[in-house]
């Protein structure tokens, strides 16, 4: 209700009116409710919008960072990190600080994996899980004992190659590493050390199984077969991609071929199985995650002995015993040695017979040329033809081009463009191999091609010679080794080595 009173100037007479304003008050109340609801809706919409931005720009990236660090600490060598989805996001260059932090963490994780390798996985994981102390890091301490296959390989004639290539030698070594590491990783191995022209590779054997009680190749997931296959396949791929390995400037090529006419990039390999202590070596200023063991040195010694025996691969007896029957069928014992002077027990040395003189580039050229001509013949309904001779890809000319130099400049000018850039190494070959062990030894065409030169009969003759040599019947041993030389046109390295050794002994 609303009461209104009206009176005259002297307040003698007055009039009072009473009005019912219920409808107006109800209308004002409804409008006030609507106004309050509208304000609440605006505030709620603004809060949701702000919260969504905070969630997308702050909370989600921080959660990604935490998850990324957790994944790295649990599996420092993991490759399928959740960051990959963020890196492939179209907004990865949005300039947000959180995005930059995630990308930085990803790069740091990648650098740690590359720098520390498999031997440093525990170091990375343990230190990322340390929660006490602002600057607490436990980089040095006791190591752990592991059992592993150690593979050591070295580039032949590297000193002369370095003097010829000068600064381009880095391209050379890294191209070899690209082929070697690509194959080793596909065969479940890990790269540990790159020491100039030498590479140390490892294949860890499950420590839950006593290595002395391994009775089947499946017990260690065909680790020995994979290690041997890695080195054999690397040698084959180096022959196939010789143009990629030796893609240097005309100046470097001129010096290289002048000093070593007909130069071909080759490596020697040693394989051994044994224990080692895995851990960090160094100080708080600089550490290297590596292995310490006489077995690591044994693999290096085997590689060094490949030059004496004239073979690309030497294997110790402990490693040979882990091979499958399919892989062992291509191996032969080349010597029986004592590790130290005065030892009673001898250990046998083995090699896997491969012929690296095969011109795979020529073979590939013949296949492509034949395929092309057969396609033309098929279109014209003519009979198929045999393979035509093809020229080798590797050619050298002082005049023809500066393509290698121009390609290198192009790579540098393109900088961080994310197209197919290979950091100046050239067009990196993609290498895919079969993991169908142990059948791969009898199904891979390349393996069959490089092992065809040395037959089982020749292997049996050499074995008879080794038995006679070990028994002390040197004259009979010479007859067998000479027979192997005759069968191989005098090119068998182990037979030459044993004959030279027998000559020294008899004289």
From TrEMBL:
Which segments show compositional bias classed as Basic residues? 368-383
Q: Which InterPro entries match?
A: A/G_cyclase (IPR001054), Nucleotide_cyclase (IPR029787)
Transmembrane stretches in the record are 29-50
In the UniProt record, the signal sequence range is none
EC identifiers of the protein: 4.6.1.-
- Sequence segments annotated as region (Disordered): 365-399
Q: Would I find Lipoprotein among this entry's keywords?
A: no
* Pfam families given in the database record: Guanylate_cyc
One GO term (biological process): cyclic nucleotide biosynthetic process
Q: Where is the Guanylate cyclase domain?
A: 149-303
GO terms (molecular function) for this protein are: lyase activity
**What keyword terms does UniProt attach to this protein?**
Lyase, Membrane, Transmembrane, Transmembrane helix
* Alphabetized PANTHER family for the sequence: GUANYLATE CYCLASE DOMAIN-CONTAINING PROTEIN, OXYGEN SENSOR HISTIDINE KINASE RESPONSE REGULATOR DEVS/DOSS
The protein in question is named Adenylate/guanylate cyclase domain-containing protein
Per the UniProt entry, what species is this protein from, by scientific name?
Skeletonema marinoi
């Amino acid at each position: 209700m609303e009461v209104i009173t009206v009176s005259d100037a002297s307040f003698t007479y007055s009039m009072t009116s009473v009005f019912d304003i219920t409808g107006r008050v109800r209308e004002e109340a409804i409008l006030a409710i609507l106004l309050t609801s509208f304000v609440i809706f605006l505030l709620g919409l603004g809060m949701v919008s702000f919260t969504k931005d905070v969630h997308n720009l702050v909370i989600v990236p921080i959660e990604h960072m935490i998850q990324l660090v957790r994944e790295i600490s649990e599996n420092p060598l993991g490759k399928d990190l959740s960051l990959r989805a963020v890196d492939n996001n179209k907004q990865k260059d949005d300039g947000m600080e959180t995005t930059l932090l995630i990308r930085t963490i990803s790069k740091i994780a990648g650098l740690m994996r590359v720098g520390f390798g498999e031997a440093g996985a525990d170091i990375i994981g343990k230190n990322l899980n340390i929660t006490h102390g602002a600057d607490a890091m436990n980089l040095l301490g006791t190591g752990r004992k592991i059992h592993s296959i150690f593979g050591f390989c070295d580039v032949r004639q590297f000193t002369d190659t370095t003097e010829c290539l000068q600064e381009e030698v880095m391209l050379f070594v890294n191209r070899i590493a690209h082929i070697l590491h690509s194959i080793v990783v596909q065969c479940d191995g890990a790269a540990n050390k790159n020491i100039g022209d030498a590479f140390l590779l490892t294949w860890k054997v499950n420590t839950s199984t006593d290595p002395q009680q391994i009775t089947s190749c499946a017990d260690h997931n065909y680790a020995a077969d994979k290690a041997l296959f890695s080195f054999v396949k690397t040698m084959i791929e180096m022959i196939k991609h010789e143009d990629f390995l030796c893609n240097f400037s005309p100046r470097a090529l001129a010096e290289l071929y002048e000093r070593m006419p007909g130069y071909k990039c080759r490596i020697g390999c040693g394989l051994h199985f044994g224990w080692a202590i895995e851990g960090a070596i160094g100080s708080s200023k600089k550490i290297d995650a590596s292995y310490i063991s006489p077995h690591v040195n044994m693999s290096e010694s085997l590689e060094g002995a490949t030059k004496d025996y004239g073979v690309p691969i030497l294997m110790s007896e402990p490693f040979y015993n882990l091979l499958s029957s399919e892989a062992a069928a291509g191996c032969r014992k080349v010597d029986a040695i004592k590790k130290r002077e005065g030892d009673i027990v001898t250990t046998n040395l083995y090699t896997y017979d491969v012929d690296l003189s095969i011109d795979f580039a020529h073979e590939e050229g013949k296949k492509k040329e034949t395929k092309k001509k057969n396609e033309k013949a098929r279109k014209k309904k003519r009979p198929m033809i045999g393979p035509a001779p093809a020229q080798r890809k590797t050619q050298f000319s002082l005049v023809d081009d500066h393509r290698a130099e121009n390609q290198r400049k192009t790579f540098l000018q393109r900088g961080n463009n994310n197209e197919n850039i290979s950091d100046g190494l050239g067009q990196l070959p993609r290498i895919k191999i079969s993991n169908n062990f142990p059948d791969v030894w009898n199904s891979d065409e390349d393996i069959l091609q490089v092992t065809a030169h040395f037959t089982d009969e020749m292997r049996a003759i050499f074995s008879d010679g080794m038995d006679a040599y070990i028994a002390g019947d040197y004259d009979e041993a010479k007859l067998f080794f000479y027979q192997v030389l005759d069968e191989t046109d005098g090119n068998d390295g182990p037979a030459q080595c044993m004959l030279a050794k027998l000559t020294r002994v008899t004289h």
